[in-house]
Amino acid sequence: MLGPSRPLPRVGRPVRVKHFGGGSEPGTILAIREEGRHVTVRGQDGELYEFVLSPASARFLTAGDAHGPRLELLGEPAT
Question: In three state form, how does the secondary structure of 13-62 look?
Answer without folding.
Answer: CEEEEECCCCCEEEEEEEEEEHHHCEEEEEECCCCEEEEEECCCCCCEEE
